[in-house]
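User: Fold this one for me? It's HEPN domain-containing protein.
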Amino acid sequence: MPHEGHFSGSPADWLRYAYSDLELAHIGRASNVLFEGLCFHAQQAAEKALKAVLIAKGVPPPKTHNIRTLLDLLPQELVAPQEIEDAASLTDYAVTRVTLSLSMKKNTKRP
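Assistant: Here's what I get for HEPN domain-containing protein.
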């Protein structure tokens, strides 16, 4: 049973989802997707890739969207690429999307 507050799944599973989010971010660049949507998928790709690395290293990732928090959990022998370090600034896009989604559900009246 997974530890409460942590995700399960193999590193390969997490990377598959990370690549999917990265692909969605790339596809969105060529269309009329909102900038915030692109940033959300880029953030999700970085978050899921970091969680894959943590799981591979035996570190159970916490349930968080905060890329800086995940970076801080990396073993000292690992150095994250600069692109992942830079992706920490995208954390707000994940948090904003979750907050907006919850707000929309709260304000939606059911028949």
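One thing worth pointing out: The radius of gyration is 15 Å.
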